[in-house]
Design brief:
Cytochrome Bc1 Complex, Chain D, domain 2, 2 strands, binds heme C
Length: about 150
């Protein structure tokens, strides 16, 4: 091999490298999509109420303070696993009542703690929102977050 990088060798490295990484990127994208569709997403439990709850989540910009599965703001706790934190996997009714109670009780205005504002949500919106949080908790995140606190 010559010591000098010729123009054609440089071009081949450029095109070959671009092609290699493009194929790798496309393959990983396809694999991620496949994993989401077949493994991580519980599509049977994806009811209309869960979808409605996602809209309530978006309309009220909960993500401006909270993160969900790591996405969002880091002012307030991660909510992707809040259903587990409230004991929903052991007792769904208590967790639902606890979450509703928490949202209704705001603002707590405890000195030294961050404040969550009051949201005017009716019973149907609250139920849908909690269905959404429950469903999100069922996503197979491969043990993320590493601690229950998120
Ligand atoms: C302005 C910021 C802000 C917004 C917007 C906000 N929250 Fe919060 N939320 C907080 C803070 C701060 C806490 C933690 C308060 C504490 O621990 O005293 C909290 C806590 C919570 C908790 C309890 C979490 C836990 O682990 O105990 C839930 C559930 C929750 N928020 C749901 C929501 C939902 C649903 C929305 C949208 C409708 C929302 N929040 C919008 C600031 C916000």
């Amino acid at each position: 091999m010559s010591d000098v990088l010729t123009r054609s060798a440089a071009r081949n490295i450029f095109y070959g490298g671009s092609l290699f990484f493009f194929i790798l990127f496309a393959g990983l994208t396809a694999h991620t999509h496949w994993y989401m569709v077949t493994t991580s997403t519980d599509s049977e439990a994806l009811t209309d109420s869960v979808k409605r709850g996602k809209h309530v989540w978006e309309e009220n910009s909960c993500i401006n303070c909270h993160s969900i599965l790591g996405e969002g703001a880091y002012f307030a706790p991660e909510l992707g696993n809040v259903w587990t934190r409230y004991g929903g996997r052991e007792n769904a009714e208590t967790a639902r009542a606890g979450l509703k109670g928490w949202i209704r009780a705001q603002p707590l205005n405890v000195p030294g703690r961050r404040v969550m504002p009051k949201f005017d949500l009716d019973e149907e919106e609250l139920d849908a929102l909690i269905d959404f949080l429950q469903w999100t908790d069922s996503i197979d995140t491969q043990d993320w977050p590493p601690t229950p606190a998120g």
